[in-house]
Amino acid sequence: MAIDYLARGGTENMFDLGCKNPRSVREVISAVEKASGVKILTVNNERRKGDAVSTCADLDRTEHLLGWKPEYTFDDIVNSAFAWEKRHKKRKSPK
Fold first, then answer.
1. How far apart are CA 70 and CA 18, in angstroms?
2. Three state DSSP letters for 44-76
3. Among 3, 17, 41, 66, which has the highest number of CB atoms less than 10 A from its own CB?
4. Which residues does 53 contact at the CB level (< 8 Å), separation at least 6?
5. For the range 8-14, what are the long-range contacts, defined as Cβ-Cβ under 8 Å and sequence gap of 24 or more?
């Protein structure tokens, strides 16, 4: 889609790709725990100055200029990332 955009005369640009809904660190940890079946040891502290409450991709430009919309849910993405890591961990040889 980005190549087609450039071929149509689009200019150099940056595009966010991701899910529209913000996720907190706790939500990300919970999703990884669910995907992995492993409890992650966490330490809760006060938020530091400048820490984000949550993050999300701003898809307005991507949708408008490229016509791109996410196909997968947040849980789909976490499950896929965990499965990829698990497959590639098996391929690494011990040092």
1. 7
2. CCCCCCCCCCCECCCCHHHHHHHCCCCCCCHHH
3. 66
4. 22, 24, 47
5. 10/65, 13/61, 13/65
67: alpha, beta or left? (left if phi > 0; alpha if psi -120 to 50):
left
Task: List b or e across 5-26, with b for residues whose CB sees 16 or more CB atoms inside 10 angstroms.
Answer: beeeeeeeeebeeebeeebeee
pLDDT digits (tens, 9 = 90+) for 49-69: 998 877 778 899 999 999 998
Structure tokens at 55: 């993050």
- Residue recorded with tokens 């999703």: 31
Kindly report, residue by residue over 14-31, the tens digit of the pLDDT.
998 887 788 888 899 999
What domains appear along the chain, each with residue ranges and CATH number? 2-91 (3.90.25.10)
User: Which tokens in the block code for residue 64?
Assistant: 């408008």
